[in-house]
Write a structure and sequence with these properties.
mainly alpha, 133 residues
Length: 133
Amino acid sequence: MSSLTSSDGAYRRYVVRTMAFMAGYVAVNIAAIFGAFDPIIGTPAGMVLGLAVAAPIAGQIWATVAFLNEADEFVRTLTAKRFIVAAGLAFALFSGWGFMESYGDAPHAPGWMVYALFWGLYGAVTPFIRTSR
């Protein structure tokens, strides 16, 4: 992304914000993988834990919106197009999977997977969306 020129500062702030939010997300999930929260799974405290894990995701989305506000018009438009296309594809694919679960007995996909699906699709569509038109 060295072609950002006037958006370099905005991009750096985006990267720092994203890394900060995702550090919390990763830390909580690693702790969960190693059993730190096993005693509260299935309790009301476990529901609070679920919201705590979702909070950094909301923060990372805020970091993306802040980047859109701070970037120049070209980068803002390009990023927004990629974001919208990736979100639309993620919605369609995850909804399709949900219907396959309901009607075709497909294995269950946890809802939190849509976030990873979205960013994977964002990365996949990025090379194809290169203009602001």
